[in-house]
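User: Hi! I have a protein structure encoded as tokens and I'd like to know what sequence might fold into it. I'm fairly new to this, so please keep things simple.
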């Protein structure tokens, strides 16, 4: 059954699936080289231009769920889109949404890192317990701290609360803030999710009333409602900016946005084919 499914798979979808699996295996065999293919924020010293075109072949090596769900969506939604558009247009669409998602995410990360940098500079000018507490709420996820780290944070908070030790506390706090800033600056993005959300957007637009049967939803749901609902969740999660959340929500939204714009333009220019 699987052999027949693979044999009858649309050619670009099949080749993308193979490439993603090969890259995933290479991440274990050549971790140092493959790490340079992940997408770092543009302000990071680790950023390289080619990462815009390689990061979407990379996936988390902490388990199989990341690559499995992305490849499942590629096959599920990409097959019908490639059959409708043809191989060339589908490939253009896939690459455009993947790279477009990365560009939009880079803009968001640049803004986010700038906001954090400005916050730290304001704290240095006027250290206080309240500002440090605000930094913790906005940027320090509870999952990112060990027991020793949590003890250090509480100790800094106490130092900042006492006028006689506020200067000492400010120095400790500045060091900790810069540590988190460095982590944010040098944390890469990887995965095909930006392109996958582009596929979802196109599928919801072109096949709006197709009923989807999904393992985590007990009843069938029309594609247009699934896509709109999923996009709304991503937007809410992105705006919430939970420090414990390491999902690139704005890359997902960026892929969907670029995708829907392309589909609308193509629908209005049906006689012009790439």
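Assistant: Happy to help. Inverse folding works backwards from shape to sequence: for each of the 274 positions I chose a residue that suits the local structure. Here it is:
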């Amino acid at each position: 059954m699987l052999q027949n499914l693979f044999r009858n798979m649309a050619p670009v979808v099949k080749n993308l699936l193979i490439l993603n699996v090969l890259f995933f295996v290479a991440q274990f065999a050549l971790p140092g080289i493959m790490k340079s293919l992940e997408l770092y924020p543009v302000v990071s010293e680790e950023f390289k231009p080619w990462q815009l075109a390689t990061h979407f072949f990379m996936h988390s090596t902490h388990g199989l769920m990341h690559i499995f769900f992305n490849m499942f969506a590629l096959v599920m939604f990409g097959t019908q889109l490639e059959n409708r558009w043809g191989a060339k247009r589908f490939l253009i669409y896939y690459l455009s949404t993947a790279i477009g998602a990365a560009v939009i995410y880079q803009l968001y990360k640049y803004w986010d890192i700038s906001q954090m940098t400005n916050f730290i500079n304001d704290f240095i000018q006027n250290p206080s317990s309240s500002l440090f507490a605000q930094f913790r709420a906005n940027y320090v996820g509870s999952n990112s701290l060990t027991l020793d780290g949590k003890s250090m944070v509480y100790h800094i908070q106490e130092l900042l609360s006492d006028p006689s030790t506020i200067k000492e506390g400010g120095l400790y706090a500045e060091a900790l803030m810069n540590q988190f800033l460095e982590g944010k600056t040098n944390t890469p993005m990887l995965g095909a999710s930006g392109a996958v959300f582009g596929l979802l957007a196109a599928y919801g637009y072109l096949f709006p009333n197709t009923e989807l049967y999904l393992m985590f939803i007990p009843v069938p749901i029309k594609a247009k409602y699934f896509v709109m609902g999923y996009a709304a969740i991503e937007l809410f999660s992105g705006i919430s900016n939970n420090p414990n959340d390491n999902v690139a929500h704005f890359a997902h939204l960026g892929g969907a946005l670029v995708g829907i714009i392309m589909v609308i333009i193509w629908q209005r220019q049906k006689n012009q084919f790439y």
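A useful reference point when you look it over: Residues 62 and 187 are 15 Å apart (CA to CA). Feel free to ask if any position seems puzzling.
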